[in-house]
Design a protein that fits this description.
Elements: E1 3-6, H1 11-22, E2 27-30, H2 47-62, E3 66-75, H3 96-106, E4 116-126, E5 133-143, E6 159-161, E7 166-167, H4 173-179, H5 181-192
Parallel strand pairs: 1-2, 1-3
Antiparallel strand pairs: 3-4, 4-5, 5-6, 6-7
Helix pairs in contact: 4-5
The chain binds inosine 5'-triphosphate and magnesium ion.
Keywords: Hydrolase, Magnesium, Metal-binding, Nucleotide metabolism, Nucleotide-binding
GO molecular function, one term: ITP diphosphatase activity
Subunit structure: Homodimer.
Length: 197
């Protein structure tokens, strides 16, 4: 079976990649399988820059093909924040609950019709001696006024999907993984790069 290495330490992302990719007969590995690799500093100003850096760093180290996901929540009413800074929005500790509280505080006076936003995922495919490829996916929603649901990770409890009348954290993993920004980026990857390795 083919192995696919993802340059991420995020357990929520890893579970989602596994659920989507194992159905295609791929074995999914991640940075958790390579604990000796030093932290990859995400100092880019775009999802694409950070995804490229994560994928290329690990691809060089392993001398094989690697993909990386850089993603985040883009909220219109606050100029696209937290955006590329989503993981550490409320500080270096990377706390999901502190990040959510900060976003809700910033949106406290924003009326429901202006609370639009989207999750964005950029996947970089890095291969030794070849140009890195970039695939993007997004998922539209609105920002709830309080957290609801306990599935998923990150900002899922405040990301409301009007058509389903549920937050992303109230969806099952199957429901999330057919509509999420990550699922959509992977659809683009497989549409363009069926034999990705
Ligand atoms: O860099 P890696 O190791 O992949 O893990 P990370 O958590 O630092 O990942 P990012 O740098 O891409 O930051 C993405 C952040 O955006 C948020 N996020 C991304 N995808 C999400 C999702 O599907 N649901 C909820 N929040 C998400 C969440 O806060 C993530 O920590
Ligand atoms: Mg990160």
């Amino acid at each position: 079976m083919k192995e696919l290495v993802i340059a991420t330490q995020n357990k929520g992302k890893i579970a989602e990649f596994k659920q989507i990719l194992e159905k295609k007969g791929l074995i999914v590995k991640s940075l958790l399988d390579y604990p000796d690799i030093p932290d990859i500093i995400e100092d880019g100003t775009t999802f694409s820059e950070n995804a490229t850096k994560k994928a290329e760093t690990l691809a060089k180290y392993l001398n094989s093909s690697v993909i990386a996901d850089d993603s985040g929540l883009v909220i219109d009413a606050i100029d696209g924040r937290p955006g590329v800074y989503s993981a550490r929005y409320a500080g270096e500790t990377k706390s999901d609950s502190a990040n959510i509280e900060k976003v809700l505080r910033e949106l406290v006076d924003v009326p429901s019709e202006d609370r639009t936003g989207r999750f964005v995922c950029v996947i970089a495919v890095a291969r030794p001696n070849e140009q890195t490829l970039i695939f993007e996916g997004s998922c539209e929603g609105t920002i709830a006024t309080e957290p609801r649901g306990s599935n998923g990770f990150g900002y899922d409890p405040i990301f409301y999907i009007p058509e389903l009348e549920k937050t992303m954290a109230q969806l099952t993993s199957e429901e999330k993984n057919v509509r999420s920004h990550r699922a959509n980026a992977l659809k683009n990857l497989f549409a363009n790069q069926a034999d990705w390795s």
